[in-house]
Amino acid sequence: MAPSILAVADSDSYLKLATSLLHRLGSGWDRRIVLVRTPTTPTEEQVQAAFVGTDLDAADVEILTLNQLSATAIPEDVLFASATGPVVAEIYARVLRSEPADARRTGLISALPGVAFPATTKGWNYRIAGDGFICHSHAEARDFADLSDALTGHQPTILVGKLPFLSSAGFPTPCEQPIKQVVFAPQAKVPFEREQREQILLTLESVARLNPGTEVIVKLRARAGEPQTHLEQFPFDSLLEQMKASGKFNKSTHIRFATGSMQDYLRPGSALVTVSSTAALEAIDHGLPTMVLTDFGVSNELINTVFLGSGIQGSLQDLLDLNFSAPHRTWLRENYFHRSNRDLADSLELLAHRAHHAELRTDTQLLAEIRNFPLRQRVRTSLPSPLLRLARKLRRYLVDA
């Protein structure tokens, strides 16, 4: 009998992670994907984009509520909680509370959808009840192992795979074609300040004007007002319109905004620039010129320390000059571009086998902690979108007051 896996996703980036991992596992597995309704549930366009390049069909996706998830509703051997932290914790709690502790039949795994370096205690604690946690590089695995060693009680096994949407077996082959398209990949959380984002848009406009025949695209994860994994305070598309209205930007712009799959824009002749998006890794994977901007700093808060020593960091002036550098091979080996092997697939098959034969055990101390699952997390995963948005606004008001 083939091993089986259910992926549960709640946002655009986590859905992409789910489809990519299940695609890489291949047809030797029975595979199913569901979306749970949360305030970050992706749009239909985002759902379609997440399936591009996979052997899975977006039409097969089911939409459930968290209340519908329990061990009795999950026939699969392995549950891949490909979701934001509070949702993962809630899913794990529901499964573990509904299965016998000494004969559990559902293996629990999770991962983060992109760069997870440096490791954070917050992200780890949400996922601590799982059987396994997938890291995507040797650097990440060491960092999470150090974090795990400092804690007591149950800890998931750290597994090392590759980001499933990276296809190169090892070092990518550089693309030598001249740059005819510059793609900027925004990150919802950074840079923080409105002025910094305006600076990026103005530089992109200058790139287009100084390089006739070179198209400049801002590839959005979502348009202003659409759901995405992280709240974006100053969406680039609405910000540009505000800059036009205030006279900071010409009415006729050379910048084009686009949505859909990033894969559609990573083709020969393209170059990618970002502040911290994992799209940088996708571009490197395609052998394309790639730049991570450092004008706004390098820090854990900016989610870009992982690119230290990469060779691809640059400034807005470098972008203006189209001065892209090749990534360093030593950095590639430690960070996401190690050679593929079957270690992760073998580990998941073993977990599926143990689950199928009810050989999994749940730590009794962990079960006691799950019964006291924080109310704040339950609110985060169950509030309707309008109420959650109101709660966020009130929180920001109280913080600023």
How would you describe what is shown here?
This protein has 401 residues and is of the alpha/beta class. It folds into 2 domains: 4-168 and 339-395, Rossmann fold (3-Layer(aba) Sandwich); 181-334, Rossmann fold (3-Layer(aba) Sandwich). Helices cover 36% and strands 15% of the residues. The protein has helices at residues 12-25, 44-50, 85-97, 121-126, 138-149, 194-210, 236-246, 279-285, 316-320, 329-334, 343-356, 364-371, 375-382, 385-400; strands at 4-9, 30-36, 62-64, 78-82, 107-111, 132-135, 157-160, 181-185, 215-219, 255-258, 270-274, 290-293, 313-314. The strands form 2 sheets. A 7-stranded parallel sheet has the order 3-2-1-4-5-6-7, sandwiched between helices. The chain has a 6-stranded parallel sheet with strand order 10-9-8-11-12-13. Helix 5 (138-149) links the parallel strand 6 and strand 7. Helix 1 packs parallel to helix 2, helix 3 (85-97) packs across helix 13 (375-382) and helix 6 packs across helix 7. The longest helix has 17 residues, at 194-210. It is globular, with a radius of gyration of 22 Å. Residues 390-401 have low confidence and may be disordered.
The percentage helix is: 25-40%
Q: Count of helices? A: 14
The CATH architecture of the largest domain can be given as 3-Layer(aba) Sandwich
Radius of gyration, rounded?
22 Å
* Average pLDDT: 89
Strand content: 5-15%
Give the termini distance in whole angstroms.
Answer: 60 Å
The figure for the number of domains is 2
**Structural class, please?**
alpha/beta
CATH class categorisation of the largest domain: Alpha Beta
Subunit organisation of the chains: single chain
Could you say which overall geometry the principal axes of the C-alpha atoms support?
globular
Instruction: Using the coordinates shown, work out and report the CATH topology of the largest domain.
Output: Rossmann fold
Extended strand count: 13
Q: What is the topology, as strand order, of the major beta sheet?
A: 3-2-1-4-5-6-7
Give the low-confidence spans. 390-401
Q: What does the largest sheet look like?
A: 7 strands, parallel
Order of helices and strands: EHEHEEHEHEHEEHEHEEHEEHHHHHH
